[in-house]
Amino acid sequence: MSTGSDALSNIDQTLNGFAADTLGVLWRAGSGTVDPWTQAEMEDAAYNQVIAAGGTADQAQAASDQVSSTIQTAPSNSESNATLAGSWFSNLTTDNGTGCSIITNPGGCVPGWVWYAGIAAGALALLYVLGPYVGLLERDR
């Protein structure tokens, strides 16, 4: 049976995970640094790995502190957001060879012809809608 402390710890871990996957993405994109929620998850993971391996609480805390100091001394992302956004848009239709990933390589998720088929279908739909107004198509009114 879990204690109240375990339940609060589980809630805290769940909220950290949610914040890291939502607000943390925006934080990392804007600042180029690790957000506090992801950092907390990484520290907890290091702590839990040492405990699971049979280590003491002091060893686990040392591992957690090591993660924290490594994150704080790591250089921030030197690429500008414009550069990163440009690379994302270039990977939108071109597979960069790293496999399918909606975030880093959306072009690897679909065959190349799908984009061209979508553009062609959009052009045909636009011509169908605008046809009567530009003289391409006669419709009964």
Structural write-up:
With 141 residues, the protein is mainly alpha-helical. The protein is built from six helices and no strands. The protein has helices at residues 4-21, 23-31, 36-52, 57-73, 81-93, 112-134. Helix 1 (4-21) packs across helix 3 (36-52) and helix 3 (36-52) runs antiparallel to helix 4. The radius of gyration is 25 Å and the shape is elongated. The relative contact order is 0.06. The model has no long low-confidence stretch (mean pLDDT 78).
Question: What's the gist of this structure?
Answer:
This protein has 141 residues and is an all-alpha fold.
Compute the separation of the termini in Å: 74 Å
How many DSSP helices?
A: 6
Helix content: 55-70%
Shape: elongated
Oligomeric state of shown chains: single chain
- Whole-number radius of gyration? 25 Å
Low-confidence sequence ranges: none
Class derived from helix and strand content: mainly alpha
Mean pLDDT: 78
Specify the biggest β-sheet. none
Strand content: under 5%
Task: Please write the string of helix (H) and strand (E) elements.
Answer: HHHHHH
Number of strands: 0
Number of domains: 2
